[in-house]
Amino acid sequence: MTTTWDQVEAHADEHGFIPEKIYSQQCHLFPVCPPQDPVAAEIETAFWHAYLSRTRRFKKSPMYLDLFRYEWYEGRRRGGFWGYIEKTVRDLVCAPDPKITILSAGCGRDLLKVGLAAGIWESTAPPKIQGTYREVDMKYFRLKKPEARILVTEFADHNLALLRDTVEQMIARGLATEEMLAVRRWDFRKRTPLATASQEMVIFALTGNYCARTEQPFILREIARTIKPGGYLIASTISDRLDFHRAGTLMGKIRVLFDTPLAVPVLSDFWPWQARFARIASRMNNLGFWANVAAEEWMEFLRPAGMVQVRIYPGTSPFLPVEVLVAGKKDNPE
Questions:
Q1: Which CATH number fits domain 5-329: 3.40.50.150, 3.50.40.10, 3.20.20.80, 2.60.120.10?
Q2: pLDDT at 260
Q3: Which Gene3D superfamilies does the record match to this protein (predicted)?
């Protein structure tokens, strides 16, 4: 007997979250993209495994976690595209029981930043570090909205393990209950673990470019499916103005360093790590397996799914331009 998506959705809880066991058993039956090019899949899998699993030479910790702890892509004051995401969350979330989904949440810092911006946690950090990368630390957090519900996803084993560890630490510290936080493995070429029209806010940051241009409309419309009328999508995309090849040259490395001053503490590992990413990303883009697409074009992809543009924040860096799209679901989508 064939399982339908309606049958899978029927198991969702009151927040629209599909139980992990049911979703993991059924998600492979519901792709949203055409079959991936096998060459692209092979290159992509090998690259992400090496890139995300690499550890620092002088410190036994994953590069991804260490570098993102330094917020190297935002600067000291948590600016850049994530600064725009945090601002948007602060502007839109006022309920005492917000419901938020963070797709591809990385090692867990996205969860901390979004929760802080949404007022789910309040900061007790000293004034001199408030608004900086140092404030994003559980030791400064205090639970303020215990009725909030957040679902976070990741796909790669390394990131998923880090994300689960972050959630477990938050529960152990009394910053969350088991009911507050849900974790799912999600492949963005499959349906999300969410019921249709169930979500108030979905955040999809800096992931949707790691696929072909022809795949991106399917992925974005699948995310839009989950947003309820009046809800919002906050998504960041690498602008088509970015040239990965230039980012991998010596001059590119120097320019990246000026744009990311917080990489200095891990510079000896940062440069080769990012140069490797630039080389592979350039190749994937040249082959058409990945695509940097402007936020305006993403908005056009979303319109058939009943989404309307609220705002587009431009990339703040001329060398590493990442744009932020804020889109809302029509109250009466056709």
A1: 3.40.50.150
A2: 64
A3: Vaccinia Virus protein VP39 (3.40.50.150)
